[in-house]
Amino acid sequence: MQTKRMTYPGRFLPYALLAPQVIVTLIFFIWPAGQALYQSLLREDAFGLRSTFVGLENFARLFRDGSYVNSLSVTVVFAVGTTLLSMTVALLLASTVNRMIRSRSTYTTLLVWPYAIAPALAGVLWWFIFNPSIGIVPYMLEMVGYQWNHRNSGSDAMLLVIFAAAWKQISYNFLFFLAGLQSIPQSLIEAASIDGASPTKRFWTIIFPLLTPTTFFLLVVNVVYAMFDTFAIIHATTAGGPAQATNILVYKVYADGFVGLNLGSSAAQSVILMVIVVALTMIQFRFIERRVNY
Amino acid sequence: MVENRPWANLIAHIILISGVALVAFPVYVAIVASTHSLSGLLQGTLPLLPGGHGIENYTRMWQSGVSNAGAPPAALMLWNSFIMAMAITVGKLSISLLSAFAIVYFRFRFRMFFFWVIFVTLMLPVEVRIIPTFQVVADLKMLNSFAGLSIPLIASATATFLFRQFFMTIPEEMLEAARVDGAGPLKFFKDILMPLSVTNIAALFVIMFIYGWNQYLWPLIITTDPDYYTIVMGIQRMTSEENPQWQLVMAAVVMAALPPVLVILFMQRLFVKGLTETEK
């Protein structure tokens, strides 16, 4: 990694400048992560008095445990649902806004502000409009003969958290799609329309392929978002229920550790999640390198 | 656009207006609900037009909160949120500026090692190592304090990398000229680098303020004293009751959402710049 050609000499100053960042990182990031690794190899007795070294037993137990396997599949459904829903809506809105000339900035402003709303608040808002007894949406659904109840029905609860998570993420995806669309040279589109390609054909044969870098980047970001940043949505609404139907992995780490006090298992889950984050970050960085050359 | 199709334009406007409506609908419902009385909300179905209890609900939430649900007055929670968000933002920006400066303008032993230590923070979101981090903070006696709320969250790899990228684009001649004129490293940092970075700092400020304001899990686990509740987590206390007082919950939601939304609306250009640059 480069520095400037000319640099300041410094024996102590650079270390002093780095110290605050490095100390915070060591104390609050590296040390806890090491603790998680260490605890994942231990098992505590019921009173937390003694712990014994059990090797990889905690990990083996997790994968034999039906509730962890369930949590894995719930996470996949949730992440795929949230990503697809919010990216599709965002792409539709972005490509429509992009053809506007005078009203473009007004629509953009009206679409970006939900980014500011905390995931927990997004959860509470959707929880409220879908409230089975006083919510507006269940009332309308009842008129078409559907009994909405996310307190009993696992699939209703899953849909609810997907809606809340996707709603919150639309503005983010929208901004990136819009930036991607604006970087496509206008001449390509004009050439295609002179050749008689309809707007739909232009979208699928020119615009969409040229958007691939943006789409791929957003896919990774959205999966990371759905896996790690949605804790608040689950916690503020379903709390993983009903019957673990929305118990995604990050929520389970918290629930097993803080509520269930099963530290060994929770630490093992933390380690698995860290491996997933590292993998996703690597994918993201590999891709960014490639996009520079694109 | 390349051709003029009146029908297509009409459809486009319809799509966009429904998009805007879809995005705004939950918040509209919250605003409406916060202006009704609880009994008005509970009879039958949700009203879609504002009622007459708005001032009453907001005053009550602002001044007294919902004590039986353990939620202190919103004024206090908003103030706590503001302190926490500002501490996180200022903390992140200052330590990232300093470390980017060290990495770009000095050659010293273990430079790469430090770079990797900072990089690792990207890969360890607080959610995945929540219990050991909580233990560390508890051992340091930082529970129920603003230091505990903010310091563990101020390490930032993204801000450090962004400033590093930016410093690399500053012409070499700047440093040469400064050194010829006899400016030491701290003077160069204060009088040349900082003024040049103002736009970047402002853009990151917007993003990080929103990040700090919206923190949820961290305040939730390390504060048990209502004096330190932040508004975003305080709302959860009110909804986890058996029969939530929805009109007050929604008043609190509107108050909690307003500051960051205003920040985005008034600083949209900085916000877009900050967002697109931190994520690249």
Automatic annotation (TrEMBL), chain A:
The keyword ATP-binding does not apply. InterPro entries: MetI-like, MetI-like_sf, UgpAE/MalFG_permease. It comes from Vreelandella glaciei. Gene3D superfamilies: MetI-like (1.10.3720.10). PROSITE patterns: ABC_TM1. GO terms for cellular component: plasma membrane. Belongs to the binding-protein-dependent transport system permease family. UgpAE subfamily. The chain crosses the membrane at residues 12-31, 72-94, 106-129, 157-181, 202-228, 267-288. It is found in: Cell inner membrane; Cell membrane. This is sn-glycerol-3-phosphate transport system permease protein UgpA. It holds the Pfam family BPD_transp_1.
TrEMBL record, chain B:
It holds the Pfam family BPD_transp_1. Keywords: Cell inner membrane, Cell membrane, Membrane, Transmembrane, Transmembrane helix, Transport. The keyword Cell membrane applies. It is a multi-pass membrane protein. GO terms for cellular component: plasma membrane. GO terms for biological process: transmembrane transport. Part of the ABC transporter complex UgpBAEC involved in sn-glycerol-3-phosphate (G3P) import. Probably responsible for the translocation of the substrate across the membrane. This is sn-glycerol-3-phosphate transport system permease protein UgpE. It comes from Vreelandella glaciei. The lineage of its organism: Bacteria, Pseudomonadati, Pseudomonadota, Gammaproteobacteria, Oceanospirillales.
